């Protein structure tokens, strides 16, 4: 029972059934007792009628008197369930047609059960002042059945209506759990970057603390994200200024030193790498879907790719790489253009870095009704299958000797893919190297 | 008639419902998948159906002792499965991997108990099917008895689920001990009825305090095998069966403790 509703309905129905059935049994026992008493009073009354009918002193079995007494006890009964006898000094004076000639039970005043003629009887015996004994008897089994039939009519509805009660309990428990369902739906429907407090209209007491705790947690989370965002942005900005100053000093130093000084070349390369790293850290921070409010607008990915490839063309040409752009034009969908530009730059930059000189890089864009797919393929060494999941981790490098990479490029790409609800896969390229495919939903 | 019907059906259903609740609570406690339940409920219904179809053949088998032997066998099998569950369950608690035998133990215990009790109810209810005067009272009584028994079982499961895992486990072991001992005593009485076991002189007689014929006496008989005047064999069987539960618990625990000790 993993559902609270099922659990509650099962427990409530069990408790309800138990109490109802026990109450029904109690009611049954009380009613049966009442019915017994009522039937006993009828027996007593029948004996009184019999005594009055017999007061004429009839010596024979009188059908009129029998009928009168029978009617009191049985109504329209056929007489089998009822018997009576009149005794005087041990002599049977008068009896119902099917009554035994032997006394039905002891001839002493009062109620009792007795066996006679193969049946068990409920007997009332009246002893008159003149010594005559009037015995009125009713078959115990039949009288019990009649009483039970009557009582069952009041018990049966309790059993038959139980499924209706179960249905009502199911519906009512569902109403009771509605605030919990609303809370779950509200949290589920949120965007991943929405850390605003949960607002539940008139929350029940049981949920007030939960909502307060969740809101407190969300507030702390929002503050932590804000601090992280500000730290990365501030740190990157603060590093940019001394790096720019360093570049100026290196430039001046280059003017003073003889051309081709190896230490200066190393220093320049180091500063360039550090500048790139700072930009990457800034991009990583900016592209984090948890921190960034995306500026989504309709765009043409093919046009964007044309612009980015044109910008990066000189760097490709420098290594003697061929760079092709193929595919459907236009390839429109809703995206964050600035972020997608960073994504393309990183994918192309990786392809350029890891493809040997005079290799080939191809950008292909295909559009279908449901998605726009971007593929960046190269003729480089590719990435082993067992490393393809890990290359999206920050500062992870598939090849340790790839000194030119920061290990942040694919982490930034993964952030941007996630922010767009897209899917990224790394495969073997037809060109022999890596094929990075990103599918954006339309 | 209604009261008789309620008591008889409640007596049977209560025992099976309590055993099922305890097995479910143990399964939850041991983090064992509940898939065994989905399998054993239809199997129990099938078992009751087969019993109904072959009732005459079963009754006449083995010189007229077939029904008693089958019922006693089901009760002993249910108890043996309970012991298996406790032994393997304790191993799981001690860190061993879940064994398929554990789910099998749960299934056998529940199927045997349900088939045995279901067959008794079937016999009783069908005996009155041809009597229109009493049929309604018997059916309504059966529904009320079954409703009370199932409700008590569901509430027992809810109670065991609401307790802390440790307390629920200990209580489950205690319940298995008394219910299991009751099963063994009931089976011994069946074997006594067919003269497989000789009746002995009663050790004591508590009829004056609690008669076996009274409603509480009948319910206690169903759940824990209460006997107002037990023979020595029955008393020893009850005690031995109840002690078999801690023994199974120890058996499941001991080898694992020894292996861990050197570390």
UniProtKB/TrEMBL annotation, chain A:
Protein name, as recorded: histidine kinase
Molecular function per GO: ATP binding; phosphorelay sensor kinase activity
Source organism per UniProt: Mangrovimicrobium sediminis
Reactions listed under catalytic activity: ATP + protein L-histidine = ADP + protein N-phospho-L-histidine
Pfam families: HATPase_c, HisKA
Stretches that traverse the bilayer: 7-30, 158-177
Domain of life: Bacteria
EC number(s) reported in the record: 2.7.13.3
Keywords of this entry: ATP-binding, Kinase, Membrane, Nucleotide-binding, Phosphoprotein, Transferase, Transmembrane, Transmembrane helix, Two-component regulatory system
Topology with respect to the bilayer: Multi-pass membrane protein
From TrEMBL, chain B:
A Pfam family of this chain: FTR1
Listed GO MF terms: ferrous iron transmembrane transporter activity
Membrane topology: Multi-pass membrane protein
Residues passing through the membrane, by range: 6-29, 36-58, 70-89, 101-125, 137-160, 167-185, 235-252
Family statement drawn from the similarity comment of this UniProt entry: Belongs to the oxidase-dependent Fe transporter (OFeT) (TC 9.A.10.1) family.
Compartmental location: Membrane
Annotated Gene Ontology cellular component terms: high-affinity iron permease complex
Sorted UniProt keywords: Membrane, Transmembrane, Transmembrane helix
Major location category of this protein: membrane
InterPro entries with a match to the protein in the record: FTR1/Fip1/EfeU
Name of the featured protein: Iron permease
Keyword Transmembrane in record: yes
